[in-house]
Amino acid sequence: MEKIRLNNGLECPVIGLGTFMLSPAEAENSVREALKMGYSLVDTANAYVNERACGRGLRESGVARKDVFLSTKLWPSEYENPKAVDETLERLGTDYVDLLFIHQPAGNWLAGYRQLEKALRDGKAKSIGISNFEGKYIAELEGKWELPPQFIQVEAHPYFTQRELRQTLDRHGIRLMSWYPLGHGDKSLLQEPIIAEIGKAHGKTPAQAILRWHTQMGFVVIPGSRNVAHIKDNLDILDFTLSEQEMARIATLDKGVRYYHRTDEQLVQFAAWKPSYEPAD
Ligand SMILES: NC(=O)c1ccc[n+]([C@@H]2O[C@H](COP(=O)([O-])OP(=O)(O)OC[C@H]3O[C@@H](n4cnc5c(N)ncnc54)[C@H](OP(=O)(O)O)[C@@H]3O)[C@@H](O)[C@H]2O)c1
After folding, report:
1. CATH, domain range 10-272
2. CB–CB of 195/189 below 8 Å?
């Protein structure tokens, strides 16, 4: 598995499994099958309400905990809960995570970030991250962090490559983890003729060409899937390399257009919403 080095010296696999919108049963199945076939990175979140299921999938896979890079996210309504990290670990069935994010710049997000820093110092998180902190939010946090984040998780794909944000990230060695890497199931990206043509030239599907593009951009990519055949295909992207010319052709697709537009009203709603967690196993 290809890995990238983080600004704290740790390494992270370049491809993993995302679990957004997967029911607990789907998440358990996808995580178990992904780990069995060689994945070593899984991304979940308080808000996905499938952390217990991801923990079960991990244990059922037979892969040792130490060989899995487990990532999760605190939801804003947890930022001021002093037990949020311990409760998250309990749901996952582990005593540490490899990566802990704050999910949104909503509510008292600085309190949330302080929880990440504490988790890092206490060994409950091996690395930390911010999710959806583009623009003014990362700028504000830059002056306030005691420990810098290792990751930012944001929407990124060939239509929206986070050009502006990447300048800030480069200053601090913060790595980008792409969400909606395949367009969240929207067919337009998967059906782009340029991508189909490039994939075909390498004997790969459009999805595989897109995922390889992410890793060659230096991003960590976590495609979500409940389909074991897709999960298998998505891992099979490390035996070919897109040429500079192919990367340049894909760069022409950058329209600076996101699929998802978050509003300030939504941030207020996020802070108020409390996930209804899965019942204990
Ligand atoms: N931090 C945040 O706010 C945030 C927001 C969104 C997502 N995320 C994270 O990022 C991950 C990825 O985002 P996402 O899952 O929303 O979107 P995505 O990975 O861009 O797309 C998932 C969709 O693509 C399909 N798909 C997967 N592999 C495929 C393949 N090889 N060929 C064709 N279709 C394929 C899946 O369907 P099948 O199930 O049929 O394969 C699913 O409909 C999430 O799972 C989550 O972990 C984070």
Report:
1. 3.20.20.100
2. yes
